Amino acid sequence: MRTLADFLRTTPGLDAADTEWLHLLVEDWQLLADLLFSDLVLWLPNDNSWVAVAHARPMTGPMVFVEEVVGQDATVVFGDLIDQAAREGQSEHVRERGQDLLHERARTVVRAGRTIGVLSIHDQLDSGRPQTRLEENYAGMGDELFAMVTQGSWPTQVAPSGARRGAPRVGDGVMRLSESGVVEYASPNALSAVRQLGHQGPIEGQVLLQVLSGLPHLEGHVDEGLALVAMGRAAWRADVSAKGAALALRAVPLMSGRRRHGAIVLARDVSELRRRGEELMTKDQTIREIHHRVKNNLQTVAALLRMQSRRVPDISAKVALDEAVRRVGVIAMVYEALSTGFAEAVDFDDVAVRGLRAIVEVARTSGAIDSHFTGSFGQVRAEEATAVGLILSELVQNAVEHGVPDGGNVHVDAQRTTEEEGEDILRVSVVDDGRGLPTGFRPSRAGLGTRIVTSMIHDLGGQIRWDDAEPRGTRVRFSVRLRSVDS
Length: 487
Prior knowledge:
Layout: H1 4-10, H2 16-28, H3 30-36, E1 39-46, E2 49-56, H4 74-78, H5 81-88, E3 90-97, E4 100-111, E5 114-124, H6 133-151, E6 174-178, E7 183-186, H7 188-196, H8 208-213, E8 218-219, H9 224-230, E9 237-242, E10 245-256, E11 259-269, H10 271-311, H11 315-338, E12 345-347, H12 348-363, E13 369-375, E14 379-381, H13 382-403, E15 408-418, E16 423-432, H14 448-459, E17 463-468, E18 474-483
Parallel strand pairs: 13-15
Antiparallel strand pairs: 1-2, 1-5, 3-4, 4-5, 6-7, 6-11, 8-9, 9-10, 10-11, 12-14, 15-16, 16-18, 17-18
InterPro entries: H_kinase_PdtaS_GAF_sf, HATPase_C_sf, HATPase_dom, His_kinase_dom, PdtaS_GAF, Sig_transdc_His_kin_sub2_dim/P
Protein name: histidine kinase
Organism: Janibacter terrae
């Protein structure tokens, strides 16, 4: 099925600002659907007709359309409802659908004085049942928002996107404020949410900002953001905490032309969400502290091995201990990277560059070595980063010690591609321009470092290959399967 972005790309006459406006509308229109207990459909011109490009169903009441509406032609489904709205600015029908009576309205979507689409609203007519006070107030607020779509004053472009927009929903609690910030209506859920903060009296007829700023046990100071939201003066979001509870507030100013005549304020009790967030933050800090301590312990082990190496008279034993120091140092470098962030993954490019420089500096015996790194390892999970780090360390060590002991070039290149089923393929090459592979070289009969590399690559479901480089030198290429950080 085509997405909204697909339809917007192929609709003539829409510029970038129009496209962004329609995306904002669809991003935020669940608020309108919930207030009006109605299905919403957005229509764009298509040849000589109109096509449905987006559809929202209410979360506060029964839906009208169970079947998919997106992609359908307006005249086939709704007769001349959309055409009439496009010509006259608005239209309204009542039609039968089986045993139901549908009330359908449509208005133009306007931006910068131009019609860029049509928005239709569809709900079922009740069989004579009187509306409750909640339904009356929701309908009034929904009608005001619907009118703002035609005026081009909603959605609000100045409102921030993402987390600071849209967290509270109509079902969480909604209040209608007057121009001066007085609560004219509060839904039962909104009243309960405010009372969770410690307010015991009514809130209707009260200035919401005064109610919130007068809470007992208020945590922190009342900042400017909360004042703007609680007075309904800006399309913004703010949080307030008191008595161990937390409330998220979002304001939607109601406009008539350029004049603000009130606001809708959505309220949500986020006490439990905040508690869980604090727990997660504590766990993240604990994990970081564990990584930091592991890194310190590994550095201590490396220091002890280094001291032992100085006291061993046997040259082969000294070499073996020095190699162990290097390997422990690589693992410590990975844990150091983990201890500086919250994610359980490492930006391995930084580890690779630091490790490459350190190994070249320590391993070289004579002559200048030019080392450089291209490509990207990307984010590597903690449980795989140690193995990748050791593999790279061993290969670079071999290139420096055996490939270019008298000086030369060492080049590391990493390329990562995304595969299916949450796995990535990492392909790495280590190339030097030295003396090349020894005659009769066989990895299975090589030293401990090569056996370590082969074993770890096998554990990661990968492969490795040694070749002569052109025009001279050695090229080692390996590939491994890594779990995607997002999976």
